[in-house]
Amino acid sequence: MRVPLADWMTPTDRAILERLRNEGNDELVLTPALIAENTDYARTTIREHLATLLEHELVEYHDEERAIYRLSERGRGYLAGEIDGEELEKSD
Questions:
Q1: Does residue 19 contact residue 28 with C-beta atoms inside 8 Å?
Q2: Where in the chain are the domains?
Q3: How do residues 29-54 score in pLDDT, each as one tens digit?
Q4: Alpha carbon 43 to chain centroid distance?
Q5: How far apart are CA 52 and CA 29, in angstroms?
Q6: Residue 78: which H helix or E strand, with range?
Q7: Residue 91 in this model has a pLDDT that exceeds 80
Q8: 70 three-class SS
Q9: What is the CATH code of the structural domain delimited by 11-85?
Q10: Which one of 34, 45, 49, 73 is most buried, by most CB atoms within 10 A?
Q11: DSSP assignment of 22-68, as one string?
């Protein structure tokens, strides 16, 4: 079952998080271009949403210089249903 979206989230945000999680396999570390290649979204859209997910601490840089992203602990908690959408509304 998919976790509910926070008010600020869109299906694109969830698609990015789920792609990085790579359910049933090892988590992925990906660039915006690789995420775009593996979803139905354009690279520019992915970049915009990654910036928002980064602000909300759901993703983090694996390699900031090369713009490679991975799930954060908070992102894993959200996808596992341990952090609800209301909690994501709070900025840390």
A1: yes
A2: 11-85
A3: 999 999 999 999 999 999 999 999 99
A4: 14
A5: 17
A6: helix 73-79
A7: no
A8: strand
A9: 1.10.10.10
A10: 49
A11: TTTSPPP-B-HHHHHHTSSS-HHHHHHHHHHHHHTTSEEEEETTTTE
